[in-house]
């Protein structure tokens, strides 16, 4: 039976990540950061990725990783979600890492695992699992098989031309993994024109990419390329549920703390049954989100045959719960919850964005209809 | 080999040794069940001598599987939900040695069916307001009052009963918990017909019923604390159960959906998929809860599971009727019967729809459960209490 609990090592990891986040990423800091120009918090990322070794959690030890799995990475994401932390963990340590692992790539993977470089998958953040290669990027000047230079050598073996919109964690990525014409290519970040997008989620700014004959190296071709893209999207969607869980939990905690201390009509507003019941229902949904997110992470980590169903359920459920938690957080804080100074909006923007990321709940339900034989 | 696999293998071996000397095919069923109890294979987490082996609860499934595999006589647990799920853990926790050895074996074997004499006309959600009186008479108690909504009282040999022993103190303090012999003079059971047409539950009139003091569970005045143990276990029992995907109410709807393409519409499709996701989420939550219990980390998620189960049963059965369209207008049978248990699968969709309405009332209403989650889990302020420091006899009724 799939283990849905947290092991001792996972709890230890959680404590370590949380204490770093408490130190380096309190809300005031995150809020100040979104007004600056940095795509993410470099110091925080260094600490989490390299010092704590989180970037390599899912990477085998012989490739320089921690030899854990995506289960442990999911625990890190719970904590990052709680803090709406502005770091490229999801994009680099989960999505790009899953693609490289599946493709059997080792060199770049080792660099990502060590936290020395970051990579991002060049697809719109809203791309759901099962998506095919987008036609917006074309490969040209493809060198014939046999004449392929080794990845990383200058020149590349193809050039890519095209546009990709709304890429997550791509602004500062050292390498972009670009699916084009059925091949998954690696492109050096410096060779891509990147425009920061004014994003709904200010803590995970997106970017638009323009490739103009950018030199590219194949990471995977044919079947392997399709599998790598699918692994990236599926693992991303599976683990995003854990980020959503952490976010929802933090929203509930903050709201519960507030309604205990805010007095109106001579009583704490948390004593009004209309609010108590809403918060109790939210707690129920979050308890379910935990079971569902753990299941999806375990399936993704083990390559379970039930992964597709687990991911669709996790995204359909956790997206909805995260948005509801953030919306309740704003509403139950009243006017203060509507202000820029209060962090509630950071959570709302993150929650709503994640509900679209890797496909909306409705798309995941539609996918499920096919997976579990409930056609219209 | 991990320790638990070793334990499981050892247990399986012991069950097979037991089966060597107790042939499941030829032993008289009741004799077999009694012997199984005496061997500690009834509920392994109970103490030795009381049907258990002091073993982790998680190992029960190993034992159950081994007995099921050989087609051993069953104790028909579904007929004695209150006995097994609520009375037994309460007796184990608060009973005297004499009570435990007298009551638990026939309870487990199914010889004694149990019912729950808690609710009264004036005391439902506010159970602590109950007014059934128990007055001491030497080494007996004389009990008089009226209970209501008593499921399966017409089948029961024993009841768990809470009665008021001191009306002069605030309500939570003046109650005492008993086990009540349903065949005792003065116990009268009358069926109460419910919205499904049948009568699972009853009203029970208690008139000068003599209960020996040896049938008191816990101290005089401690009834509320004892009842809490019962209620906690009730919610786990109602929400618990390991279930495969698409079992229960949602399975009825998905089967119908697959068999009848002509009934499908886009709107119903959307509703069905939403329900499917929520049901799967609730199922995984139940699975996680059981893993927590097995790992000795009981969490408050039991309330979450019960709340979700009530709502999902209601929504799925409602959807089933809509999906059926014209056939949803028909009902199977309004005859007044007195069933021995609840079976959602063997009756019509209309029955399921109606019976599911009870899920958010029985075992604590969904509103009360939300209060409990809000107060005990989230730590939100309690409801305003006008009755806390008032003697029970002075409360408005
Ligand atoms: C099928 C079925 C089987 C049952 N079997 C048994 C049994 O075997 N033994 C037994 O003892 N009892 C049994 N019951 C009784 C059940 O426990 C009670 O019906 C239940 O506790 C509610 O009590 P009540 O009916 O008096 O409703 P009330 O308590 O009067 O409640 C009426 C409404 O008010 C709401 N309400 C009450 N107080 C609050 C509050 N503080 N905040 C918000 N809302 C509130 C309730 O949620 C409900 O919606 C059974 C009930 C059913 C439906």
From TrEMBL, chain A:
Protein family per UniProt: Belongs to the acyl-CoA dehydrogenase family.
Protein name according to UniProt: Acyl-CoA/acyl-ACP dehydrogenase
Residue span, Acyl-CoA dehydrogenase/oxidase C-terminal domain: 230-369
PANTHER family associated with the record: ACYL-COA DEHYDROGENASE (PTHR43884), ACYL-COA DEHYDROGENASE FADE28 (PTHR43884:SF20)
Presence of the UniProt keyword Metal-binding in the record: no
Gene3D superfamilies: Acyl-CoA dehydrogenase/oxidase, N-terminal domain, Butyryl-CoA Dehydrogenase, subunit A, domain 3
Residues covered by the Acyl-CoA dehydrogenase/oxidase N-terminal domain: 10-108
Keywords: FAD, Flavoprotein, Oxidoreductase
Organism: Actinomadura alba
Entry cofactors: FAD
Record's keyword annotation contains Flavoprotein: yes
From TrEMBL, chain B:
Residues covered by the Acyl-CoA dehydrogenase/oxidase C-terminal domain: 221-378
Domain Acyl-CoA oxidase/dehydrogenase middle: 115-209
Origin: domain of life: Bacteria
InterPro entries noted in UniProt: Acyl-CoA_Oxase/DH_mid-dom, Acyl-CoA_Oxase/DH_mid-dom_sf, AcylCo_DH-like_C, AcylCo_DH/oxidase_C, AcylCoA_DH/ox_N, AcylCoA_DH/ox_N_sf, AcylCoA_DH/oxidase_NM_dom_sf, Mycobact_Acyl-CoA_DH
Keywords in alphabetical order: FAD, Flavoprotein, Oxidoreductase
Family, per entry: Belongs to the acyl-CoA dehydrogenase family.
Descriptive protein name: Acyl-CoA dehydrogenase family protein
Upper classification of the organism: Bacteria, Bacillati, Actinomycetota, Actinomycetes, Streptosporangiales
